[in-house]
Amino acid sequence: MIKLVLSDVDGTLTDNRRVFSTRAAEEIRKIQAHGITVSLVSGNVIPVMYSLRTYLGLSAPLFAENGGSMIADDITSFFSMEKPALFFDHLQNKGLARGILTNRWRLCSMGYDPTPGREREILALAGEFQVDITNSGFSWHILNQGQNKGFALLHLIKMFKLRPEEVLVIGDNLNDMPMFQESVKKAVPANAEPELKAKADYVSKLPYGDGASEILSSLDSF
Amino acid sequence: MIKLVLSDVDGTLTDNRRVFSTRAAEEIRKIQAHGITVSLVSGNVIPVMYSLRTYLGLSAPLFAENGGSMIADDITSFFSMEKPALFFDHLQNKGLARGILTNRWRLCSMGYDPTPGREREILALAGEFQVDITNSGFSWHILNQGQNKGFALLHLIKMFKLRPEEVLVIGDNLNDMPMFQESVKKAVPANAEPELKAKADYVSKLPYGDGASEILSSLDSF
Hints:
2 copies of one chain form a homodimer.
Chain A: E1 4-7, H1 22-33, E2 37-40, H2 46-56, E3 62-64, E4 69-71, E5 75-77, H3 82-93, E6 97-99, E7 109-114, H4 119-126, E8 131-135, E9 140-144, H5 149-159, E10 167-170, E11 185-188, H6 194-199, E12 202-203, H7 208-216
Parallel strand pairs in A: 1-2, 1-10, 10-11, 11-12
Antiparallel strand pairs in A: 3-4, 4-5, 6-7, 7-9, 8-9
């Protein structure tokens, strides 16, 4: 029986322009009202997750910066800004990338737009600076090593004392892969990347928020 | 004919616990798709308005900090943090107030919880520090003089070159009063304060997001 749902946001609960599905919002509220814990994890920043938590009416902690920071009544950052900031400065100085609007609100990651054609160069440099690079499908992020959505998943499993098979994860893009682990249940909307579909227990025929809504409305089948 | 709608958020598009009405979200998207400009103004912070703009899919600029700051593709602060921060420090040092979580994201205002029983003392001190005090119904704010939702309204009227009678404002609480000006159309949900009801062209029989949804679905009647 599923006791906790951990979902990605952009591309999973939204459409391809990041407009949030009101159907998904309704399903989320419905399953929370039925006693299931609902958490979200995104590459976006703490105040954005603060907004989603407030306006969706969620009570569980939510995770920002690909799992690196968490908001409940208070804010927790599990990683430091030191390495991401250092690498970002390096990229900027070499003309390889530009920062994004939300960087001013980040605690332990940096977002960037790569200079066209220089994407591989950035990936090649990351190891040297001991950082990880991920792409949400909406933007590129510089993370500390070990900072990913799998980290958020493990944190929730411990916090709520769950068995992995009591957890359903939902996502669509490559930065969701670290939470697509063997032991938990996994579902994806139709727009998900092939790598995620290959691992999923269930692939919705519907894309984006409609797919997530269908998944959320049939939790009993997991 | 209404060409622009400017609405408050908390208590107007949400319920009394700040959970956003999905019906209101749908109505907002519908009227924007019909060519009407939709903007929001709140006592909340820029990244929260950034989230609402993204996840509602709005294209107009939105206003934070009671009209003091604005987000479109970029962020603009029309006022400084100097006086609100100075007054807040004074309140804190005298044990009159505590800060709120969102203060770390503010550009030109401070939010506070007054020490119970000391509310009037705070109001009495504000003039001396040349700041205004307002209450959204959800929290107290320290603002620069002239920083209010009427400022945001005038900014939008200029920006979109509108006549005031082409603008509909919607709000529920006393910090919405500065935008309830003679020359614009005004509507309120059933939970609005009596002072706003007295000025409104239309008072919905429905409260909160349901009231706003009803108003938004009948723009032709204004």
